[in-house]
Amino acid sequence: MTGAVTTPFASPLPCAVSEQNSRGRRYSEPHPGHRNQFQRDRDRIIHSAAFRRLEYKTQVFVNHEGDLYRTRLTHTLEVGQISRTCAQALGLNVDLVEAIALAHDLGHTPFGHAGQDALAACMEGLGGFEHNIQSLRVVDELETRYAEFDGLNLTFESREGLLKRCSRDKAIQLGDVAARFIDGGQPTLEAQLVNVCDGIAYNSHDVDDGLRSGLISVTECRHNELLAPLFAEVESAYPQLNERRVIYEVVRRMINVQVEDLIAESRRRIHQAAPSSVEQVRKCDKPLIGFSADMARRHQLLKDFLFARLYRHYRVARMVNKMQRVVNEIFHLLLDEPNLMPDQPRRLAAHAAAKYGRRGHARAVSDYIAGMTDRFALEEHRRLFRPEELT
């Protein structure tokens, strides 16, 4: 395995989040007893309906295109695994990191970024749609499992970690959880870490799935600056290995070399800044978790390669176009004809419309669509638009 060996477990940093320095929950609850507060967050996320639905939501390839491609759920689990490893090595709060990782895509639409882009276009002028903000909306409002509050009542730090980006206007509406988008500064080290590990995970598994699908080739990958030395290393060590296993070995090394760089560079930045508390982390001008300049450049080159060769491949583009039409047509029909929605989302839409007008109704429709799986969205589209389908 390439890269220097790092210490797998580091002593907790004074600037890591702990139960003692947590800002707590929106609604007061007794201590969870045999678990800490962030383990409770993690467990609530895993038991949520939104988490289960990730199994049938697109990463790159729509759910029905093949059983072995990543889904939004397997992506989430991979982000969690990579994030935990890095958190242990850096001395961060592993339980908080896991909670943020497991919740970070709860607000994603069906059909991946194609669905998000379509829903964002539909909601333009009606309050907008952004999946990070929708993830926060899911855990704050849309999950309805508990008698005493809406949402999951997660800790402030777990909720804050879901917001990677946010406009100033939206941040004002969200309040303290989005304060850094108004005042400047950084989120916790744990939130910063999950953000970077998300990129490691999706680049790595998109290479794997892209090669499996045949939409990108090993020959193309050998010309990429991050992948080329890894292919050379594997093929030198195992000259008789079949191509499928070569790819697995390369993807393993690809994750490892980025993780090793991330840990080493983050340790250097933390040592240099020497924050003694979470609040000092928040006051930093730049993130303390990140790649070295060289790895950041190579990571971006890989993203550019995948964007040009995989995400814009004509076969992916055809599916994207179809899926965006599905979302667009469902949205506009239900916006104009709310009586076509099932009972529960129709009641929610009527309540939102009475309180906030057309924008409230549109938000309820977008919540309904964002919560759909790929399979349900396709079935709902058939029920709504094809006369021969049962309703």
TrEMBL record:
Keyword field contains Mitochondrion: no
Matching InterPro entries: dGTPase, dGTPase-like, dNTPase_2, HD/PDEase_dom, HD_domain, PHydrolase_assoc_dom
Gene3D superfamilies for the chain: Hypothetical protein af1432 (1.10.3210.10)
Domain of life assignment: Bacteria
Stretches for region Disordered: 1-40
Domain HD: 72-203
Listed PROSITE patterns: HD (PS51831)
Keywords: Hydrolase
GO annotation, biological process: dGTP catabolic process
Sample GO molecular function, one term: dGTPase activity
Compositionally biased region (Basic and acidic residues): 26-40
Similarity remark: Belongs to the dGTPase family. Type 2 subfamily.
Alphabetized PANTHER family for the sequence: DEOXYGUANOSINETRIPHOSPHATE TRIPHOSPHOHYDROLASE-LIKE PROTEIN, DEOXYNUCLEOSIDE TRIPHOSPHATE TRIPHOSPHOHYDROLASE
Protein name per UniProt: Deoxyguanosinetriphosphate triphosphohydrolase-like protein
UniProt source species: Halorhodospira halochloris (Ectothiorhodospira halochloris)
